[in-house]
Task: structure prediction
Amino acid sequence: MTSVPANGLARRRLIRFGICLEAITLGWNVVGVVVLAVLAYTSASVALLGFGLDSLIEIGASTVVIWELTGTGERRQRLALRLIGVAFALLAAYLLVQAVVALIAGHRAEPTPGGAGWTAATALVMFALAFAKARTGRRLGNPVLITEGRVTLVDGILATAVLAGIALDGLLGWWWADPLAGLVIVAYAVREAVQIFRGENEGP
Result:
């Protein structure tokens, strides 16, 4: 059950807090796209590249929620969600090809401390943001913020999966762990795309 504050001032404060949470998510992922692009290039990591592309998706999702919380209109939100769904599908197709080629060719990434450090920090930040979004969304009775909070939660889980792939490759020499982590992102991207388009088809 969700609850809506009876006090209008409290509601406005929660909306501002929700926008603040999305702004932090947005800023973190904008920086993350640049950082991960550099790290993925230097380490030739499929998982880091995929996680960087996932950060682009999260940027779009955060923008959608900010639009919704500021009352810019449902039609605009639906268009943005549709574009996010297309982006998820393209991300899944690209990563699937890259991961399969890497597995067949026996491609080895070069694990770097920077990749592990950024991914670990991202996991912690995303888990904290997801908790705050879920709590704020429930208090507002806002399903959009609650849903995007779940996307942020999965983003933290993905960061953990990528970190595990980097660690297994660096510590045990399991080169296949990196593209395998990329396949985890493929599964996530497909699931999100299906849910977005299924929800759109089931809408009024």
Notes: The chain has six helices and no strands. The chain has a mean pLDDT of 80. The first helix runs from residue 8 to 43.
